[in-house]
Design goal:
2 domains, 8 helices, TIM Barrel, four-stranded mixed beta sheet, alpha/beta, six-stranded parallel beta sheet, 375 residues
C-alpha cells in the first residue's frame, strides 16, 4: 500500500469546460474571472503552503490564440449539434478574449515554486466516452496535446478526461502519456448511474469520509482514481454546507494519515467563482491544514505524474525480484511483463533510472467509464 499521500488535480478549462452545455454571458464572466483572479489566487494558496498540484489544462487554451484545427475530425453529440469550435473566437487572442486563452497562466504555473505539474485536459474538452465521439477524434486530440507538449517543453505525463468520461486508453498510452485520472472510488458503486449520483450528493451533504485509492495499471497506463470532487456553490450545490465540505476534506486527511493509501482531491479553479468566496475559503483552509501535515511529516503531497512514476518504479522492482526468485528456484527464468523504471523527482519531472532485471523477460481491460462530474 502507498505511504500516506495526497494528490491534488485541477481541471483548468476557462470557458472550454461547459460552452456545449450552456453558452451565455455568465459563462464568459466566469472564464474571465478564472483567468484574471481565480487561477492566480489558487496558485498562491498552493505555493504559500509549499504544495504541488497537477494542473490539467485544456490544450487549446495553452496558446495565445486558436491554432489551426483543420486536422481535427468533427464530432456531433446529441446534446450539441453545432460545430465544436463554433463558439470559439477564431481571430481573438489572450489579450482580447482571456476567457478562452491562457498562455500566460500556463507560464505562471510553470514558474511557480514549489514546482507544479502541467498535465492535459484534452485539447478541446470534447467528452470522450459518450455517443458522438470517434476514435479518430480521440487520436487527433492526443496528437494535438502531444504537439503542444513538445512546443512548450512539457512532459507528456498526466491526462484528465473531460467530465471524467474515460475512453480510448490504449490510444492515450500510444500517444506517450503515462497516467490518467480515473473515475472516483465510491464506498458502494451501483450499476445504476442515478443511484451513484444520489449517493455522492448524500455524501456531500452528510460530510461523510471519502475513500482512499491506489494506482494501478489499465491497458499499460497508470490509473489514479479520484477520491473527492469539491463541487461549486451554484444551483442545488449552493445548499451543501461549507462545514460539510470541509469535514469531508478533513476526514480524508485523517484517514490517509492513519490508514495509508492515496487521498486524491480534484476540482476546477472555475469552481471558485459561484458564491465566491465560499469555496475558495474552504479550499484555502484545506490547503493550510494539508501544508502543516506535510511539514510535520504526517503525509506527503505528490502530483499525478510523480505518483505514477513511483508506482511504475516499484512495479519494476517487484517484477525483477519475482523474476530473480523464479530463476533461483527453478534454474530457468519465468518473468512477467516488466514495467518501465522511473525515478520520482520534482513536480513535472519524470526520468528513467536503471532497474536491474534478469537477462530475459516475457513479454486490464479498458472500461469506458462515465463520470459524475456534472452532478
Amino acid at each position: 500500500m502507498t505511504q500516506p499521500t495526497v494528490v491534488i488535480s485541477l481541471d483548468l478549462e476557462l470557458c472550454w469546460g461547459s460552452f456545449d452545455l450552456s453558452y451565455n454571458d455568465e459563462l464568459l464572466k466566469m472564464g474571465r474571472w478564472t483567468h484574471d483572479t481565480g487561477a492566480p489566487n489558487l496558485l498562491k494558496h498552493l505555493t504559500r503552503n509549499g504544495l504541488s498540484a497537477t494542473w490539467a489544462v485544456v490544450g487549446a487554451m495553452m496558446r495565445r490564440s486558436l491554432p489551426d484545427v483543420s486536422g481535427l475530425p468533427e464530432v456531433r453529440y446529441p446534446h450539441f449539434a453545432k460545430p465544436w469550435f463554433g463558439y470559439i473566437p477564431k481571430d481573438a487572442d489572450e489579450h482580447t478574449r482571456p476567457e478562452w486563452f491562457g498562455a500566460s497562466l500556463v507560464e505562471m504555473i510553470r514558474h511557480a515554486s514549489p514546482r507544479q505539474e502541467i498535465g492535459f485536459h484534452s485539447f478541446s474538452h470534447v467528452p470522450f466516452g459518450v455517443r458522438g465521439m470517434t476514435r479518430d477524434r480521440a487520436i487527433a486530440e492526443y496528437q494535438y496535446c502531444a504537439r503542444i507538449a513538445h512546443e512548450l517543453g512539457i512532459p507528456k505525463s498526466s491526462f484528465v478526461f473531460p467530465r471524467n468520461s474515460v475512453a480510448y486508453l490504449a490510444e492515450l498510452r500510444d500517444a506517450g502519456f503515462t497516467c490518467f485520472r480515473d473515475v472516483d472510488r465510491l464506498p458502494v458503486r451501483f450499476s445504476n448511474g442515478m443511484l451513484n449520483s444520489l449517493a455522492m450528493i448524500w455524501a456531500d451533504f452528510a460530510g461523510s469520509a471519502p475513500c482512499m485509492v491506489e494506482p494501478s495499471l489499465k491497458e499499460g497506463i497508470v490509473s489514479i482514481p479520484g477520491s473527492l470532487l469539491i463541487r461549486y456553490a451554484a444551483g442545488w450545490r449552493k445548499f451543501i454546507p461549507d462545514s460539510s465540505r470541509l469535514r469531508r476534506l478533513r476526514q480524508g486527511l485523517e484517514r490517509v494519515r492513519l490508514s495509508r493509501g492515496v487521498f486524491h482531491v480534484w476540482f476546477h479553479p472555475e469552481n471558485l467563482y459561484a458564491g465566491r468566496p465560499r469555496v475558495e475559503n474552504v479550499v484555502a483552509r484545506f490547503l493550510e491544514e494539508l501544508g502543516v501535515m506535510v511539514r510535520n511529516g504526517d503525509v506527503r503531497c505528490l502530483t499525478m505524474g510523480q505518483l505514477a512514476a513511483e508506482f511504475r518504479s516499484n512495479l519494476a522492482v517487484k517484477q525483477s525480484s519475482r523474476s530473480s526468485q523464479a530463476f533461483t528456484s527453478t534454474g530457468q527464468l519465468h518473468s512477467p511483463a516488466s514495467g518501465d523504471g522511473y525515478a520520482i523527482g520534482p513536480a513535472n519531472s519524470v526520468k528513467p533510472v536503471p532497474v536491474k532485471t534478469s537477462t530475459a523477460s516475457g513479454a486490464d481491460p479498458q472500461a469506458t467509464n462515465r463520470a459524475l462530474e456534472s452532478v
